[in-house]
Write a structure and sequence with these properties.
Layout (H helix, E strand, L loop, with lengths): L2 E7 L7 H11 L4 E7 L5 H10 L4 E4 L13 E2 L1 H6 L4 E5 L2 E5 L2 H11 L8 E5 L3 H12 L4 E6 L2 H13 L4 E5 L12 E4 L3 E4 L15 E4 L8 H8 L3 E3 L1 H17 L5 H10 L2
Parallel strand pairs: 1-2, 1-3, 4-6, 7-8, 7-10, 8-9, 10-12, 12-13
Antiparallel strand pairs: 3-5, 5-6
């Protein structure tokens, strides 16, 4: 039976999700389609009614609707209630169930590369929506502590309170404090939006070494300045596209209840850059 899927958000023109999911459908011989719909802020309710009318089977949600979408769900998966935001929805006869695959997507590259998180000291740059899913991931995998460094200290403090609630030792600092040195961390993650369009790295990465895991969740360009600086120190690199791929793989598995064709999806994603 043919099924239809979508991604909604604004802006949406450059979304890579249609490429990734269409490649998966082809690879698995599924008669399904995946389209990007622009739904501006303030028009989410009508947008969802429209998707229900055309009997969409499932959809992804991106900026700016990930939090607002929560109030239109009939059922909420644990991943979604923990993070307080939704990026994947199933539609079963008009009943919408929400999931958040960002946490699994973030953790996927660690699993694939057999990189350990348990008992590590983490530096997280940024305290926005994506950072919240990342904190949940580090709590799940039992990191020993997380330092949240952000431009706005208040936002870092709020996120560190969330971390403590889910039993992860956390402290909050201003990003300036680690601008010139980031010593003594096992894992450093950039979850700020800094790096897009070739902006300079948010911190210098001085003090890291070849055992430090450096993960940039910004994925355009693939080689951000942050990643380039980490490469100069021979650090272990995880690219933003790997998280993007991981969350799409998990969404595919939720919708189709079968293992996702990882290689075909990766090839389609990298072809889109
Ligand atoms: P938010 O808008 O929720 O958060 C943005 C974060 O970046 C905040 O911590 C903000 O700090 C910080 N920031 C913004 N501008 C600056 C600046 N000039 N200097 C220092 N800090 C700054 O965004 P998201 O959390 O949703 O997304 C963050 C990035 O991650 C985006 O680039 C997005 O594309 C990417 N992303 C990648 C994913 C993937 O699959 N690879 C998945 C989700 C997101 P402040 O609190 O002070 O405003």
């Amino acid at each position: 039976m043919s099924k239809s899927f979508a991604v909604i958000g604004d802006p949406i023109d450059h979304s890579l999700s249609p490429n990734i999911h269409s490649a998966a459908f082809r690879e698995m011989n599924l008669d399904s389609s995946y389209i990007a719909y622009r739904i501006p802020k303030g028009e989410l309710e009508e947008g969802i009614e429209g998707l229900k009318k055309i009997k969409i089977d499932g959809f992804n949600i991106t900026i700016p609707h990930k939090i607002e979408m929560m109030k239109y769900l009939d059922k909420i998966d644990e991943s979604c209630s923990l993070i307080g935001a939704v990026n994947t929805v199933t539609n079963t006869n008009g009943i919408l169930k929400g999931y958040n695959t960002d946490m699994d997507g973030f953790l996927e590259p660690f699993k694939k590369k057999k990189l350990n998180i348990a008992n590590t000291k983490v530096l997280l740059l940024g305290a926005g929506g994506a950072a919240r899913a990342i904190v949940a991931g580090f709590a799940k995998e039992k990191a020993s502590s997380i330092t949240i460094a952000n431009r706005t200290l208040e936002n870092a403090k709020n996120l560190s309170e969330f971390a403590k609630k889910i039993r992860l030792n956390a402290n909050a600092i201003k990003i300036e404090e680690v601008k010139d040195t980031a010593k003594n961390f096992d894992i450093i993650v950039n979850a700020t939006s800094v790096g897009l369009k070739d902006e300079s790295s948010p911190i210098s990465l001085e003090g890291i070494n070849e055992k430090t895991i450096v993960y940039d969740i910004v994925y355009i360009p693939i080689n951000t300045d942050f990643i380039k600086k980490a490469k100069e120190k021979n650090a272990i690199i995880i690219y933003g596209y790997e998280m993007l791929l991981g969350q799409a793989v998990r969404a595919f598995e939720i919708w189709h209840d079968m293992e996702a064709p990882y290689s075909a999806m990766k090839k389609a994603l990298l072809g889109g850059f």
